[in-house]
Amino acid sequence: MTFLKYATASALAVMVAGAAAAKSDITLAMQLEPPHLDPTSAAAGAIDSVLYSNVFEGLTRFASDGSIIPGLAQSWEISDDGLSYTFKLASGVMFHDGTTMDAEDVKFSLDRARAEDSANAQKALFGSIAEVVAVDAGTVKITLSAPNGSLLFNLAWGDAVIVAPESIENIKQAPVGTGAFKFDNWVQGDNITLARNPEYWGTPAKLDKVTFKFISDPTAAFAAVMAEDVDVFAGYPAPENVPQFEADARFQVIVGNTEGETILSTNNKMPPFDNVKVRAALAHAIDRQAIIDGAMFGLGTPIGTHFAPHNPDYVDLTGESAYDPEKAKALLAEAGFAEGFTTTLKLPPPSYARRGGEIIAAQLREVGIETEITNLEWAQWLEEVFKGKDYGLTIVSHTEPMDIGIYARPDYYFQYDDAEFQAMNSALEAEADLAKRSALLGQMQRKISGDYVNGYLFQLAIPTIAKAAVRGLWENAPTQANDMTGVYWAE
């Protein structure tokens, strides 16, 4: 009996230790796998979904509520004329390879991002920077060519994270950052693992290991969650299952806002979409609510311009492109397309695009527009559509925060080139007064809505399914990220 008593106690201790070990790691599933792991040279949001804040950090960063808070810069001073920003860096910051992060690394990162040959997908964020100077190891001075009221916001993007020249050559496969987690391993087609950084300069992560599991198929996603093979599924791709999870005590369901303006993106330079009447017809042929109900099972907020409805400066312009198929037919006739036309509809993998695409194709067919649907993998979409501009229509959700400025870039993939809008955007960048910025943002929203640049569909909601004991997940997504630095298991 004595032996059994001690054996049982020993076994119990092992079980308890095993349970504790199990609760120091987590598996988070997401639908899209990153094409590579350099957030400073690609437009794919899946890169930030894995690495933002976890592995890489910038001078500033987004908090879970969307506010801008200090990152690697602990404080900053802005000159009276708004042309210079002096940043004091956090002390004792090391890259994961053991090298010191200092002002020279900041200069390297920002100069690389804004260089003439830069591959940064958001190079325009750095367009107002005239010079970056490493004043000393812990101080960086950024001088602007013109005041930019959005600089601190821009520096919080994943495209502005700080990297090191010593590790830049292999960054796409073996990223080296300063964050609370270190890159551990990438099994392409399956998962990426991050390990806790024991030398982290800030508040340490609570988890020892995070595994990002990639499951693109909605049916497989449902099976993985129900079998508890994953602990969290961020951006769960089959919203029709949400009520089932809500009724299951094993899970918690978190439905938050994103910055994701989901649009029927239109190639403005490709005939017949270079005709504003055709673009207007396209907009009036779309029944937004039918798309939200059919593709998203009710999750999503209709939009009439490229701006987030939860933003205080949002203007509701959905009425400007209300569903009206007869008006759409009349506009097509006025534009010389009474018999309609055929175009391409190239769809990336997310279910909002694939499911929404089928619904939109049927709606467009009702007014005489036939679409040739092609389903593309993410890398193909980036190459053909985003880079190559080889498309008529596509569906994508722009998850970057407050990104209406992309409409001021004539070479951006939907190729909208309007001098009036570009002037508005320049005025916005130079303006620090909040009331004046709000007025400009309203004008910009009305301008692109009135020009029917794209078909504005809905603001993407983000349903996250997690085991009931998981704590610290972001509810909303002010940027595309799965910030795991504060995530833990409840006792």
CATH topology of the largest domain: Dipeptide-binding Protein, domain 3
Give the name of the CATH superfamily of the largest domain. Answer: Dipeptide-binding Protein, Domain 3
Low-pLDDT windows of residues: 1-21
Structural class: alpha+beta
Number of strands: 19
Radius of gyration, CA atoms, in whole angstroms: 24 Å
Q: Characterize the main sheet.
A: 11 strands, mixed
Write the layout of secondary structure elements.
Layout: H1 2-22, E1 25-30, H2 45-51, E2 60-62, E3 68-70, E4 73-78, E5 84-89, H3 103-114, E6 129-136, E7 139-144, H4 151-154, E8 181-187, E9 191-196, E10 209-214, H5 218-226, E11 232-233, H6 242-246, E12 251-266, H7 276-284, H8 288-296, E13 301-302, H9 325-334, E14 341-347, H10 351-366, E15 369-375, H11 378-387, E16 393-398, H12 419-430, H13 434-450, E17 455-467, E18 470-471, E19 488-489
Parallel strand pairs: 1-10, 1-11, 14-15, 14-16
Antiparallel strand pairs: 2-3, 4-5, 5-7, 6-7, 8-9, 9-10, 11-17, 12-16, 12-17, 13-17, 18-19
Helix pairs in contact: 7-9, 8-10, 12-13
